[in-house]
Design brief:
Distance between the termini: 29 Å
CATH superfamily of the largest domain: tm_1862 like domain
Bound molecules: iron/sulfur cluster
Structural class: alpha/beta
CATH class of the largest domain: Alpha Beta
Number of strands: 19
Number of helices: 13
Strand order of the largest sheet: 17-18-15-14-13-16-19
Shape: globular
CATH topology of the largest domain: pyruvate-formate lyase- activating enzyme
Helix content: 25-40%
Length: 435
């Protein structure tokens, strides 16, 4: 969602004549888009904004610094009080006001300006211009905000309650993107499965998936899915819509029903296992991935063992694993936890090892198969190696065939014969013609 917000910021400023420069040192305007889901991102932001004070002055002689996104929404007043080099602070729903705020800051002789946005703000950032980073892939927001209030999560406080986009607007946007040459869309929202509840009174995500599939777009992904809202209708729509990729990221967070209850997740271990069984029988071979928090306050060794056993039972092919990060203002932040840091770290390492082993095992299944990859660019480590993603969202590496300019393959769909299956990527020669 933050990546997408940054594209909207870029689009809004671009429509006012701004152009991108190669480094912040050259910029007349620097916009920091922020995230406060974890403590580390908070700390980084303050370091980076302070560093701008000593950055070289741009040729125009004046640099405006703006902070947007979740931290701006949460800490607006404090930022203005304590960070003297910040000119503009804008909340999560105030992207459209940015040009006006920048002009206000320029005219205000060094006085910073702030936009906060109330719950009933009718705007939706998706109606704003966007400057996509890639011509072949697009983020398409379908809803924003969250009503779930998981006890560790700051999102509902900074992104507000759920708000849906108009169904037809989303489908029209995907049709336009397809006409523009986009091959893959990712439908975005804090809780995509509940799309439609706020605007239409009941969820319409299954219907949306089918309608987006009918636009002719080649690949559809979506994130994030909450297990409690993933309905049988959606599972069926996924299975019956060929463009929906055979991959699902479904955050479980813990394998212990006791911890899930404390997290306010509204499902049990058994519910989650039953749900993933349904998914696997509707879409055999689907690649499941997840998010897991280690060290939630009060997590015992037994709770953690249940997480390990659930990871094995579901057979996740990858997982984002995190050590619990205390977010002030959330209910979980009030719970004291005597568990020593080393114990939590040791649990985290055991989980990471298991996830890596499962990722490796899952990739062996792809060995000697031919997989389709959407080519995204060249490898950061080796300029001759191209990188793409398979339908199951596995990273695929290959070299351009002799005589083919590597750049000409970016944005194309190619077939790769897997001759090497590592933990985090597949590798092999390209076969056939790109399309
Ligand atoms: S569903 Fe996701 S965004 Fe919403 S409160 Fe829970 S973790 Fe946060």
């Amino acid at each position: 969602m933050n990546l997408h917000d940054s594209e909207r910021v870029s689009g809004v400023l671009g429509s006012c004549g701004c152009i991108e420069v190669a480094s912040p040192d050259e910029a007349d305007i620097v916009v920091f888009m922020t995230c406060c889901v974890r403590e580390k991102a908070d700390t980084h932001l303050y370091g980076q904004v302070s560093a701008m004070v000593s950055a070289p002055v741009p040729p125009s002689g004046r640099r405006l610094v703006a902070i947007g996104g979740c931290i701006a929404q949460r800490d607006g007043e404090n930022i203005r009080k304590h960070m003297k080099n910040v000119d503009v602070v804008f909340g999560t729903r105030a992207i459209s006001s940015l040009p006006e705020l920048l002009v206000g800051a320029l005219e205000g002789n060094g006085k910073s300006v702030q936009a906060d946005v109330s719950e009933d703000d009718p705007g939706f950032s998706s109606d704003l211009p966007s400057r996509r980073e890639t011509p072949w892939h697009a983020w398409v927001p379908i809803m924003t905000g969250c009503n779930n209030f998981c006890s560790y999560c700051i999102v509902p406080y900074v992104r507000g309650r759920e708000r849906d986009r108009v169904f037809e607007d989303i489908v029209d946007e995907v049709s336009r993107l397809r006409e523009d040459g986009v091959r893959e869309v990712c439908l975005l929202g804090q809780n995509v499965n509940s799309f439609g509840r706020q605007r239409y009174g009941s969820p319409r995500f299954a219907e949306l998936l089918r309608a987006v599939g009918e636009t002719g777009i080649e690949r559809i992904r979506f994130t994030s899915s909450h297990p409690k809202d993933l309905s049988p209708e959606t599972i069926l729509a996924m299975a019956e819509t060929p463009a929906v990729m055979p991959q699902l990221h479904l955050a479980v967070q813990s394998g212990s029903t006791r911890v899930l209850k404390a997290m306010n997740r509204h499902y049990s271990r058994e519910d989650y296992l039953a749900l993933t069984d349904q998914i696997k029988s509707a879409m055999p071979g689907i690649a499941l991935s997840t998010d897991i928090i280690v060290g939630f306050p009060g997590e015992t060794e037994e709770d953690f063992e249940q997480t390990l056993s659930l990871v094995k039972e579901v057979g996740f092919e990858s997982a984002f694993t995190f050590i619990y990060s205390k977010r002030p203002g959330t209910p979980a932040a009030e719970i004291d936890d005597p568990t020593p840091r080393e114990v939590i770290q040791e649990r985290f390492d055991r989980l990471a090892e298991l996830v890596a082993q499962q990722a490796f095992d899952a990739n062996q299944v792809e060995f000697s198969r031919t997989v389709e990859a959407l080519v995204e660019g060249v490898s950061k480590r080796d300029g001759d190696v191209l990188v793409g993603h398979s339908p199951k969202n596995k990273t695929v590496h290959f070299r351009a065939p002799e005589g083919v300019e590597p750049d000409s393959l970016i944005g194309k769909l190619v077939e790769v014969k897997v001759e090497e299956a590592r933990t985090w990527y597949l590798r092999g020669p390209m076969v056939g013609e790109p399309r």
